[in-house]
Write a structure and sequence with these properties.
The structure holds 3 protein chains of 3 kinds.
Chain A: H1 3-38, E1 41-43, E2 48-50, H2 54-60, H3 63-94, H4 101-113, H5 116-126, H6 134-141, H7 155-184, H8 187-195, H9 200-228, H10 232-237, H11 249-259, H12 263-272, H13 274-291
Antiparallel strand pairs in A: 1-2
Helix pairs in contact in A: 2-12, 3-7, 3-9, 3-11, 4-7, 7-9, 11-12
Chain B: H1 2-23, E1 37-43, H2 47-63, E2 67-73, H3 79-88, E3 96-100, H4 104-109, H5 120-123, H6 132-136, E4 139-140, E5 143-144, E6 147-152, E7 155-159, H7 160-166, H8 174-183, H9 206-215, H10 233-248, H11 261-266, E8 272-275, H12 279-286, H13 290-293, E9 294-297, E10 308-309, E11 311-316, H14 324-334, H15 337-345, H16 353-356, H17 359-362, H18 367-374, E12 377-378, H19 386-401, H20 407-422
Parallel strand pairs in B: 1-2, 1-3, 10-12
Antiparallel strand pairs in B: 3-11, 4-5, 6-11, 7-8, 7-9
Helix pairs in contact in B: 9-10, 19-20
Chain C: H1 3-28, H2 50-58, H3 61-92, H4 98-110, H5 117-126, H6 133-157, H7 161-169, H8 174-185, H9 187-203, H10 206-211, H11 220-223, H12 235-257, H13 263-270
The chains are: A mainly alpha, B alpha/beta, C mainly alpha.
């Protein structure tokens, strides 16, 4: 290859990356730096004052921050776990020889494609804590419970409501993702195993599981990212209440920024999570190295 | 492979579209001609209300050919966020904004609103032209920061069918209120659970408490607004009245059994409720034969005075408005009896007394009650930090309602935290 | 596997998932007075199409709809293109600063959140793009880079490198390898990406509201709020509008569905 070719060859990885990175730089990195700077100021929309680490201290000494942190982790673990496990379950069912699979797929997918804000308001109404709330009405008609459940007005029930709602919304997507992969495993692979007299469990273990793990990893990663950014579920269903007990990091951030007009606090809160990210990054890098080794 | 060609095609099409949208401006974006001033008005009107406002603005434009009015709808709960975003980057939001009364002192304090003291003559209005409650919402530190645009208040709704059956008439004092509530609380089907309540606290936010507080001569803040005074005797008595009604006399449901007041009322679970003018529409969605059961009257009088609560919106002009004189002209129009009355007819109640006293309201059996109550309606504390105060009051009101603390304890903590917020000495 | 049990489980699941929508659909055909009737009715007693008519005539829903479709389509196609290109580089090619970039991308996904509204607004305003389509979709593309880049990278890394090594021996250019070999193998990933981006663009509300000043380029997500006032929500109208709005996303999903099955990759894998 002559010199020009060599140059182009060397530059290509960067050229591939460039357009995406330009967009990322302008609309994500620059705002991040702006926010970072803000976290050292007492910023009141039209005026600002440098206060060093005071915002960070305020966050770390705020009990509600820890409640929000604990809640976010709770939501993360339960909603990701729930969507993955139930997704696998339903994908497995849909992979069986059944009729009307296409119809089921669309039905399962509908919650996914409706906008969060609207569905959240819908759910807030359905979860009304009296016997007139549609969910309670259904439960009581079916005899599952005798008295109306206080879905959104008791701390733990409210958290469960948020978790239920989040899983409900995303389940269709994980199911479809897993189903796609399941369907792509050619029958022949299983037939070969049958020739060796493999048991169902053995087939599952050495064929299905390894072939599913990449997609499970990808889906889990996406769900985790989404779980950190949970917002309408909490904001619209409970507003963070009752008494801040269901507050998530994002809703608490929003409250501080736009209700209390304490942007410094809100941005500082965002950046306190950086150590988390570094840990998660290391885990991801470790996992990824392992996953694609076969 | 079928995928490749489609991808290429998509790329070409996308590039073409991108080029197109960058070059062509989207439909109907022609700016006004040279001499004409275009005013932007941010509003939160519903479609119905906005259509009527548009017609009224057309009339205004006809009389003021050099001014055009552009209306921009902003969803109610997002207005503040959008406003703050514009202010943060120094961009003028709009020429006029219809803003919830609660946010006016905050913006005034940030110095982003145009003070209107010197323009009252031009605007042709003064404090005496408005109901006192709404007028108070535009005042901060002795300046006028906006004009009351529309208002609402709350009155007593009662099940006239229940009252007639018992031969009762609507209460006019606290004692009568409690008495009637107790009489109308019943276990109708003998299952040991109360199906019909006399009254209901209605909710756990500041406006559910304030009415009683004021009627008993209390207040949220001291008159110089430097400290909170809710835990003084009038406040304790008022809160105790609500708690006792619920637990001691069992005439109102405890929080675990609450449902939306309008729902409870329409279904016959609540014999009385305190609500605003929108309640009639809400009642209709549950039980449409409203005229059979809905009775409306003024709130009972408290031990010290009559009082109800003021809600609504004010009209504000940002400080660095581009077309000040035109904006003032439009503001004047919006304060005219004609505009106020016409908007009142579509459900946006007027703040201008002259409009409120028009036969349209006086002769309406439903709306007349609200307009009459306006005379004694008070606003919540007109203070920049009210948003946070609201949260504090809510938190401890809830605690008191759930009997997690006594009324006095709840109010004491409320006051302590609000004092801290206000920067009172000795409170950190 | 007992067939009956499978069907029962699937049907129960389906009912739970679409239950609320059945209520929504039913409400969209009800008159205002029947919305909260108790006991609730599934089949509207006063069935009528009036709500749909009202929604289409009283609010410029038609225009909002077109704007939503346009913006979502542009965002999706550009994002998928840029991200797949970048992800390939990230997954396959060696270059300096790879790990640093990875960390930066991850960080952006989790940290800042809400406050970024303001700086983004600053940029768009400075570029003179307020109230334009570009002002809406350009940031969308930017915001969709990080997460999707990481996901696509995963998909590319799943392709066994033996195929590409063979191509390199044939003296194919990098772009050719990417375009003709790698890309078709990750069709499933691209389809996933496309749906993800489409949905997030379709849903976005606060940004559209902030950057637009009138109905010209506004989208459905903002339009739906017209039916929600401070005190009352017109459920019958809102549900009708939402039902109309859900249709394009369903169509898009159906279009992308057939790419979900990564057959090609596994044919290659077997070999």
């Amino acid at each position: 290859m002559d010199k020009l070719h060599a140059l182009i060859f060397k530059a290509t990885p960067y050229l591939f990356l460039l357009p995406a990175l330009i967009f990322f730089g302008i609309f994500v990195l620059f705002p991040m730096f702006w926010s970072f700077r803000l976290s050292f100021f007492d910023w009141r929309v039209v005026s600002e004052q440098f206060i060093g680490l005071q915002n960070y201290i305020n966050v770390l000494t705020d009990p509600i921050f820890y409640v929000a942190l604990a809640n976010t982790l709770l939501y993360l673990i339960t909603t990701v776990g729930g969507q993955v496990i139930l997704g696998l379950f339903f994908a497995f069912l849909l992979n069986q020889r059944i009729r009307g699979r296409a119809l089921f797929r669309v039905m399962y997918y509908i919650p996914v494609i409706t906008s969060w804000a609207v569905v959240a308001i819908l759910w807030a109404m359905l979860l009304s804590p009296t016997k007139y709330g549609i969910l309670n009405y259904a439960l009581m008609s079916l005899g599952i419970t005798g008295s109306p459940v206080h879905w959104l007005t008791e701390a733990w029930l409210a958290r469960i409501s948020i978790i239920m709602f989040s899983i409900w919304k995303g389940l269709g997507w994980t199911t479809m993702m897993f189903l796609g992969t399941l369907q792509s495993i050619p029958q022949k692979v299983y037939e070969v195993a049958d020739l060796d007299n493999a048991t169902t469990w053995r087939k599952f273990q050495s064929i299905t599981l390894p072939l599913m793990s990449p997609v499970v990893a990808v889906v889990t990663a996406q769900l985790i990212i989404g779980a950190f950014n949970i917002f309408p579920q909490v904001y619209i269903l409970t507003g963070g209440g009752p008494l801040h007990s269901t507050e998530s990091l994002t809703t608490w951030q929003f409250s501080n920024a736009f209700t209390k007009l304490d942007f410094g606090y809100a941005t500082a809160m965002g950046f306190l999570l950086l150590p988390f990210i570094l840990i998660m990054t290391l885990i991801q890098m470790r996992l990824v190295r392992k996953e694609f080794e076969y | 492979m079928p995928g490749k060609r489609t991808l290429l095609a998509v790329v070409v099409v996308v590039a073409a579209i991108c080029l197109a949208v960058f070059v062509i401006k989207p439909f109907s974006q022609e700016g006004p001609e040279q001499e004409v001033v275009e005013l932007l008005f941010w509003h939160t009107y519903s479609v119905h209300e906005a259509n009527r406002a548009r017609e009224l603005f057309d009339e205004f434009e006809a009389e003021n050919p050099k001014i055009r009015v552009k209306m921009e709808y902003v969803p109610y709960h997002a207005l503040r966020t959008k406003l703050l975003t514009y202010l943060a980057v120094g961009e003028a939001p709009a020429d006029l904004i219809r803003l919830d009364i609660i946010y006016v002192p905050e913006l005034a304090d940030m110095n982003v609103l145009l003070p209107l003291d010197d323009y009252l003559d031009t605007l042709g209005v003064g404090s005496e032209d408005f109901y006192p409650g709404p007028w108070a919402t535009v005042l901060w530190e002795n300046h006028v920061w906006g004009l009351p645009l529309n208002t609402n208040t709350q009155v007593l709704f009662y099940r006239k069918d229940f009252f007639e059956a018992e031969g009762l008439s609507p209460p006019t004092t606290w004692e009568e209120y409690l008495d009637v509530a107790r009489r109308l609380t019943k276990d109708l089907d003998g299952d040991g659970q109360i199906d019909q309540w006399g009254g209901t606290v209605g909710g756990d936010w500041s406006w559910h408490f304030d009415i009683w507080l004021w009627q008993n001569g209390g207040a949220e803040l001291s008159s110089d607004m430097k400290r909170a005074v809710m835990n003084e005797t009038p406040g304790v008595e008022a809160l105790t009245f609500l708690i006792d009604m619920t637990y001691k006399y069992g005439a109102a449901p405890p929080p675990e059994e609450w449902m939306m007041p309008y729902q409870g009322f329409a279904l016959g679970h609540y014999s009385m409720m305190i609500e605003g003018p929108w309640a009639r529409d809400l009642l209709m969605t549950v039980n449409s034969s409203v005229s059979d059961y809905m009775g409306v009257t003024l709130l009972p009088r408290g031990p010290v005075r009559e009082a109800s609560i003021v809600g609504g919106e004010d009209l504000v002009i940002p400080r660095f408005v581009k077309n000040r004189d035109a904006a003032l002209k439009l503001a004047k129009y919006m304060m005219s009896e004609h505009f106020q009355l016409e908007m009142g007819k579509v459900g946006v109640l007027p703040t201008l007394r002259a409009a409120g006293e028009d036969p349209f309201f006086v002769e309406d059996p439903y709306l007349s009650v609200f307009m009459e109550q306006m005379a004694t309606a008070l606003p919540r504390a007109v203070h920049p930090a009210y948003g946070q105060m609201n949260d504090i009051i809510h938190n401890y009101f809830v605690a008191a309602l759930r009997r997690e603390m006594s009324p006095k304890e709840a109010l004491d903590i409320m006051v302590a935290e609000i004092d801290k917020l206000l920067g009172v000495e000795g409170h950190g | 596997m007992q067939s009956a049990a499978v069907y029962v489980a699937l049907i129960v699941g389906a009912l739970v998932l679409i239950g609320p929508f059945l209520w929504m659909l039913s409400t969209s055909f009800k008159p205002k007075t029947e919305i909260f009737k108790f006991p609730p009715t599934l089949w509207p007693e006063g069935f009528s199409l009036k709500n749909y008519v009202t929604v289409l005539t009283e609010a410029p829903i038609g225009r909002y709809f077109i704007n939503s479709v346009l913006i979502s389509a542009i965002t999706t196609s550009v994002t998928v293109f840029l991200v797949s290109l970048a992800a390939y580089s990230f997954a396959r090619l060696e270059f300096k600063g790879k790990n640093f970039l990875f960390v930066a991308l991850m960080a952006s996904l989790i940290s800042p959140g809400i406050a970024t509204l303001i700086p983004n607004f600053m940029i768009v305003r400075a570029a003179g793009l307020l109230d334009t389509y570009a002002g809406i979709f350009l940031p969308y593309i930017g915001w969709n880079i990080a997460g999707n880049l990481l996901i696509m990278r995963g998909f590319f890394r799943a392709i066994p490198s033996s195929i590409e090594d063979a191509a390199k021996l044939d003296n194919c250019s990098v772009f050719d390898i990417y375009f003709k070999i790698a890309l078709p193998l990750v069709e499933a990933g691209l389809a996933t990406l496309a749906i993800f981006v489409w949905l997030s663009a379709w849903d976005e509300f606060m940004w559209v509201l902030t950057v637009t000043s009138g109905d010209a380029v506004r989208t459905m997500s903002v339009g739906l709020y017209i039916f929600q006032g401070p005190y009352i929500t017109d459920w019958n109208l809102l549900t009708a509008a939402v039902t109309l709005g859900v249709a394009p996303s369903i169509v898009f999903f159906l279009l992308m569905q057939r790419y979900f099955v990564p057959t090609a990759a596994f044919e290659a894998y077997k070999g």
